[in-house]
Amino acid sequence: MSTQHPNQISLERCIVRKLGKNKTVTKEIAISTDMIISYDWMESICSPACTSSIMISDSKDFLNTFPIEGGEEIEFSINHSFSKNPLVYTARIYKVTTRIIDGKKQVYTLLMTSEEALINETIKVQDPLDGNPESLTIKLLREKILTSKEIFSEPSRFKIRMVPGNKRPFDIIAQLIKKAVSPKTNYGQSTASTESSKSDEKVIKGSAGFLFWETQRGYNLFSVDAICDTSKEKVFSAPKLKSESWGPYVETISNIDTIKDARFNISAFQFTSEIDIMSGLRLGKYSTKMIFFNQSTGAYDEYVYKIKDSYDNMAHLGGQSTISLIPGNTDALSESTGRIMSAVLDPETWYDQSEVGDPDDPNVEKPTEYADWTKYYAAQSFARMDLLRNQEGILKIPVNPLICAGDKINLLLQSKLSDTLKKQKPYDTESSGIYLIKEVTHTFNFVVGGTSGNGFTTLRLFRDSYGTDIEPSKHGNK
Asked: Which distant-in-sequence residues (6+ apart) come within 8 Å of 72 by Cβ?
């Protein structure tokens, strides 16, 4: 498709289908172009299902003559400038909302989600599950949800056995990702080695945290470190990860700066959150005390997890070499416990031998493979996710329908220096750089009575550190 404007799109077709058994089409109809006001497609790395909505201007009583009853499939196909082939979105209607009637005309919005999200609501899993989070997730998607979509995933370190207790598949997966630890992540425990720590303090190190989400490409299950790994060494890389890198998108000043491809202009950008130490302290971002009681052996242990001890063993999006602590109050705030977590450990439930099976016991020769590994992922996953909120922002760009949640984007933001100094340093090297796309919304607006229109893409971004690879960041505890 040739375009004259970076926001230009055109509607290929919009079909509504009623489906019978085995997804056979029992009835279908095309929505005429003069009825479509806008269409939105939404993805989030925190959601197991894509959602979409279409706003209809109806003067033909389509809502009742078709009629719309819920569960219908809408196929929405558009032409855009990033590919010669049209992009097709498919979703199921689950709600009619904001219906306004004015004489013989009515305006309403059809809300849609993926077919799998509807199926998930009807499935209650009872069979015991045995395996690692990756294999169990794939099993739930293929055997329970019965999806035929592609699944991109990464192995997890520990094996799990669980009784689902009539939970829905997506709810079970939400539990599994909390227990998942990348096999490329170092973990373990030791005694304190820093001057600010107590000499008898037990320290836990490591990183954890997985995400499960759906995009137009398929389902994704990956560790935060794999998603954030932009290093040349690719220490945490996952071969199956489909996380495109977009850009650079450039912030320009009208009539002054220009770039060759206007599709990569930044239309608008704002930071929504930065340097929130209050939330960080309450969530135990800097330091968390973990208290564990092993109900099988009667052992009681206290550990401290400090993210600064594990920062070097994590993947980071920015160019910041060390974590940002609280200057001037390091001992009082950054080192002190901000959160206390407690858990009852149960490593013997799935161990049928008479001897102790706890793998943390040095005297155990053959520990259980279904041990309780809570101490190696509980605080770690919380801290790792909170670290991603170091910088958050909302970006608006010319429509790029190929961008998905979980992709990365490179931003070049204008320097805030005077015009004279700006010639030497045109970009803000602290705020520019690579961000992770947390949420994406593609919006398509159409001209009444025609197939052409314009679109824009809105991205919610976040990252765990400042800076770029252009020059070292000034943030961090030096």
From this structure: 16, 17, 18, 19, 92, 93
Q: 459: which strand partners?
A: 395, 440
Q: Residue 172, SS3?
A: helix
Among positive and negative, which fits the CA dihedral 197, 198, 203, 208? negative
- How many C-beta atoms surround the C-beta of residue 67 within 10 A? 10
Q: Is 247 left (phi over 0), alpha (psi -120 to 50) or beta?
A: left
Mean pLDDT of 177-183: 90
Q: What is the mean pLDDT of residues 376-391?
A: 87
Query: For residues 348 and 299, is the Cβ–Cβ distance under 8 A?
Result: no
Percent over 90 (pLDDT), the chain:
49
Which is higher by pLDDT, 33 or 420? 33
Per-residue pLDDT at 248: 93
Pairing of strands 151-153, 188-191: unpaired
Locate 329 and state its tokens.
């109050």
According to DSSP H, which parts of 180-311 are helical?
Answer: 224-228, 277-282, 307-310
Q: Are 264 and 174 in contact (CB under 8 A)?
A: no
Buried b (16+ CB within 10 A) or exposed e, 451-470: bebbbbbbbbbbbbbbbbee
**CB neighbour class for 161 (10 Å; exposed up to 12, middle 13-18, buried from 19):** middle
Paired tokens of 2:
């040739």
Query: Which two tokens mark 237?
Result: 């890389």
| Burial degree of 296 (CB within 10 A; 0-12, 13-18, 19+) | middle
This prediction's pTM: 0.91
Phi, psi (degrees; rounded to nearest 5) at 472: -60, 145
Q: Which amino acid is at 194?
A: T
Starting at the edge strand found earlier in the chain, the sheet holding 218-223 runs: 151-153, 218-223, 210-215
Mean pLDDT, range 209-232, rounded to an integer: 94
Task: Tell me what the mean pLDDT of segment 421-431 comes to.
Answer: 81
Token pair belonging to 412: 């070049």
Q: How far is CA 66 from the centre of its chain?
A: 37
The owner of tokens 């303090």 is: 201
Contact 313, 205 (CB under 8 A): yes
Highest mean pLDDT among 158-167, 329-338, 372-381, 404-413: 404-413
Q: 2 pLDDT exceeds 50?
A: no
Q: Which H/E stretch holds residue 102?
A: strand 83-102
Range from 43-47, 61-65, 181-185, 262-266 that averages highest in pLDDT: 43-47
Q: What is the token pair recorded at 321?
A: 């070499």
